[in-house]
Design goal:
Length: about 170
C-alpha cells in the first residue's frame, strides 16, 4: 500500500509541475529526497509525509535552488511542529529550500537565504522586501530577531548558515 501511495504521489507531483523543472521526489530507506524547484505542490507533499509519519523521525535529503513562496508558511509550520525532522543538504539548498530547512529540528549542510520574492505574472518576480510574517515565524522557531532580519535582508545578497550535524557552525 505504501509503495502504491508513493507511485501515485510521484505522478501527481510530476503532473502538477510548472514549466520549471519538476520537483523530483523519491523515498528510500526512510529518507525522502527532494530536488528541483519547490512550489505549492511540493509543500503539500511535505505536509502529507509529515502527517503520515507523526511521532517518527523524518529525514529529507534536499538539493534545490529554491522555488515559490505560495504555501511555504504552512510547510514551515508543519516541519517545525513535527519536531523530528532532519534536513540534510546533499548539494545545495537556497531560498525556499533554506526557509523549509530552518524550520527543521536537525539540519546538516549549508542553507542560503535572501529576501522573499512573489510571482508577478508568469515570467517576472516582484520583491516582497522583508517579509515580516516569515521573519516572525523564524524568530518563533527559536532564532534571534537579528539573525532572522539578516537572513532576509536583501534580494541580491545571499546570507548563509552552515550546520554540521545539527549545530550552527558559521553565519555570514
Amino acid at each position: 500500500m505504501k509503495k502504491i501511495f508513493y507511485l501515485l504521489f510521484l505522478f501527481v507531483v510530476a503532473g502538477c509541475a510548472d514549466n520549471q523543472s519538476a520537483v523530483k521526489y523519491n523515498q528510500t530507506n526512510d529518507r525522502h529526497y527532494l530536488s528541483g524547484d519547490l512550489n505549492a505542490h511540493s509543500y503539500e507533499s511535505i505536509i502529507q509525509v509529515l502527517n503520515q509519519n507523526q511521532n517518527k523521525k523524518v529525514t529529507f535529503v534536499v538539493d534545490s535552488l529554491g522555488g515559490y513562496v505560495s504555501g511555504i508558511e504552512d510547510a514551515m509550520d508543519a516541519i517545525h511542529a513535527h519536531g523530528q525532522v532532519n534536513w540534510i543538504v546533499r548539494n545545495r539548498c537556497y531560498s525556499a529550500c533554506a526557509l523549509l530547512g530552518i524550520s527543521a529540528s536537525h539540519i546538516d549542510g549549508t542553507l542560503y537565504f535572501h529576501s522573499v520574492n512573489a510571482e508577478y505574472g508568469k515570467t517576472t518576480y516582484a520583491s516582497l522586501g522583508r517579509n515580516e510574517r516569515i521573519i516572525k515565524r523564524i524568530v518563533s522557531y527559536g532564532y534571534s530577531q537579528s539573525m532572522a532580519n539578516k537572513l532576509l535582508s536583501s534580494i541580491n545578497i545571499q546570507t548563509k548558515l552552515e550546520f554540521n550535524d545539527g549545530v550552527l557552525e558559521q553565519q555570514n
